[in-house]
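Lab manual, section 2.4: Encoding a predicted structure.

Procedure: take the sequence of the chain (153 residues), apply the prediction step described in section 2.3, and record the output as structure tokens. A sample record is shown.
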Amino acid sequence: MAAPHSTYRGNLSYPTSDGKPFDSDQHRQLMFDLIGTLDDFFAADPLVYVSGNLIVCYVPGDRRRHVSPDVFVVRGVEKIARLNYIVWEEGRGPNVVIELTSSSTADEDTGRKFELYRDVLRVPEYFLFDPLGDFLRPRLQRLSPGRGAVRSH
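Recorded output:
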């Protein structure tokens, strides 16, 4: 792996990987496709950052307090490559998070992660997508940040 170019941003005092593998080839490809589609959609706006499977650190000084959303969008930050996303250094957290969910990740996606995105990171828009259709009905759902209820789309 090449050394990061000078346009990379990140804080090497914090993790740059969670070490977790993708659930499947389909999960990986769909995540890349979603990131690419959102990147294309926001291409003209230099202050919309799109990423995924990147460590998001949210507590200064605590290397263990991080999450790695499958896909996320942040408005108002520079569109540059990052080694990790440090919320307090960037000045804002994600505006949108999309988790690709399944029966094996559903408890974490609707429990711990939902509470973290809602209560700590205060993510306004949180979506779950079940690419295989084996868990969620309908397959795309928005978890309401204000009440914790699931609303379908």
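Check your result against the sample. The CA atoms of residues 1 and 136 lie 38 Å apart.
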